[in-house]
Amino acid sequence: MAGIIFFSLPYTIHTICPYAIVCFGLSKNILIQYLGNPFAITIAFSFLILVLTIFGSRLFCAYICPLGTLQEIIYTLFGKKRKNRKQIPQFQERRFASVKYIVLVVTIILSLIGVNYIFIHLCPVYALSLLPDIAVWGLIVTLVIIVAGIFLERFWCRFLCPYAALMNLFQHLGQLVHFPRLKIHRNLERCNDCELCSLSCPMNINITEDEYVQNPNCILCFKCAEKCPKPETLKGKMEK
C-alpha cells in the first residue's frame, strides 16, 4: 500500500527512488550538487534503506517500492488467473538472479565515468515519473517488465533490479559483522513440509530449506505464512 502512496506524492517517484543517485551521476560531488534540493532527501532515504536492510532484510521491496507495488498489482490481476502456474527450478533462479549484480556493476561504472545518460532513460522508475510524457525506450522497458511480470511474479525484483542487488550485498555485510537480522522463522515441530509456503513465495524461495530463511532475496511479505495450513508455523524473528 505504501507504494501506491508514492505514486500520489507531489514530486516524481524518481526523486525518492533510492537508486536515483546512480541514475543522475556519481561523477560529480553529490553532496554539494544535491544539498538543499529535493535530491538531498534521495541521498538520505537511500542510505537509510540500506542501513535498515542490514537488520530488516528487503522490507523496502515489499512495502515501499512503487515498482514492486506495480508488479504486485499486475500479477494479482493477470498472473494469478493463469492455469498451471509453476515456479522455475532453483538452479535457473540462481543463474538469472545473478544478472541484477551485473546491472548493478555496469550502472555504477557508467555513472562514475559520467555516461549515466545511457541508461537513465531505460530506468522503469524514471519512465513512470515522466508520465504522461514517457520516453519511448522507458516505455518499452516498462512494458517488458509488466508483461514478464504476468508470467514470473516480481520479475524485476528477482532478476534485474540493481538496488535489490545492492541491498543483498548490505545483508551479507551485516552477516560478516554478526548483526541480527529479521528473517522468516519456521517452527520445525509444527511444519509438515507440505511446500505450500515455497509455492506461494513471489521470490521463488525454498522456504523449507532451513529453520530460518537465509536467502537474501526474501522481502518479508509473509505470503508464505498466509498460505501455511498450520497457523504460527512461520513467523518473523531476529536471527543473530
Automatic annotation (TrEMBL):
It comes from the Bacteria. One of its GO terms (cellular component) is plasma membrane. The keyword DNA damage does not apply. The chain crosses the membrane at residues 6-27, 34-54, 60-78, 99-122, 134-152. InterPro entries: 4Fe4S_Fe-S-bd (IPR017896), 4Fe4S_Fe_S_CS (IPR017900), Electron_Trans/Redox (IPR051684). SUPFAM superfamilies: 4Fe-4S ferredoxins (SSF54862). Keywords: 4Fe-4S, Electron transport, Iron, Iron-sulfur, Membrane, Metal-binding, Transmembrane, Transmembrane helix, Transport. Residues 182-211 form the 4Fe-4S ferredoxin-type domain. The keyword Membrane applies. One of its GO terms (molecular function) is 4 iron, 4 sulfur cluster binding. This is 4Fe-4S ferredoxin-type protein (YccM). The lineage of its organism: Bacteria, Pseudomonadati, Candidatus Cloacimonadota, Candidatus Cloacimonadia, Candidatus Cloacimonadales.
